[in-house]
Amino acid sequence: MFDELKVFSGNAHPQLAQKICDYLGIPLGKMEVFEFSNENIFVRVLENVRERDVFVVQPICSPVNKNLVELLIIVDAMKRASAGRITAVIPYYGYSRTDKKDQPRVPITARLVADLITVSGANRVLTVDLHAGQIQGFFNIPVDELTALYILSDYFAEKELGDVVVVATDVGITKRARDLAARLDVPLAIIEKRRAGNMDESETLTVIGEVEGMRAVLVDDEVDTGGSLANAASTLKECGSTEIYACCTHPILSGSGVQCIASSLIKELVVTDTVPVPDEKKADKITVLSMSSLVGEAIHRIHAGLSVGAMFQ
What we know:
By secondary structure, the protein is of the alpha/beta class. The chain has helices spanning 14-24, 64-80, 109-120, 149-159, 174-184, 227-238, 257-262, 292-304, and strands spanning 3-9, 31-35, 41-45, 52-57, 85-90, 124-128, 143-146, 164-168, 188-195, 202-208, 215-223, 243-251, 268-272, 286-289. The strands form 3 sheets. A 7-stranded mixed β-sheet has the order 10-9-8-11-12-13-14, with helices on both faces. Strand 4, helix 2 (64-80) and strand 5 form a beta-alpha-beta unit. Helix 4 (149-159) packs across helix 5 (174-184). The longest helix is centred in the N-terminal third of the chain and has 17 residues, at 64-80.
């Protein structure tokens, strides 16, 4: 068994790392991480990690490339400081949408990022709701994938909305939406859409399933510009839905995403804190649930050699 548990954080999401440490009842590890004037990143671990079980919390969120490189350098610093085991805790896995060659002469960047994390010295990865399940297979080290499904379903169950239908925002998210519908014991509908080119725009086509006279809960893994959710909400309203809610794990909300949600027909968007949600993005319609206890419990179980999967049974 590895010695003392240590949790460190890069600059991507120190608030989540602190909440995880509060759950575990341990102090956040001391470390310097900053950028020189020439944009080179400097890392110095300020405490002994020799033979310790080290967890580095760093979602690959905006600024994506800076946070990714920061993660790699932190892991390398831990390896060179003789950490016993290094787990990269990546609540949001950036570049996850580029998980396959869907056009000629394009990269599979999600695989490249996996290689970089492995080469940097990580011994295992802990993440939340990957965009595509096959990304786990891009790693040659163990990957534990948590899900926000239970936190989100419990939230909607407590609201006791009545006459609810869960709606997948596209065919690719159907399994996750079906699991949420099963947890809430309600029917499932699917929105068929077609993405136009490489731009963050999509054309909503039709709804498969019965939504008329029902409260709809849209499901997606992440919300970026908000356009897909807003279009889906409009389509559901046209099909007779009485109220429209939405939920996702990763609230990227880039560009005018917050304004897009605020002006949409969505009554409430429920998200988690896998990435930071600053005050300027906390619109009245957006509810943020914390993943800290779930991630903290997973860290405890990994450290103690217990089953992570048992958390969801």
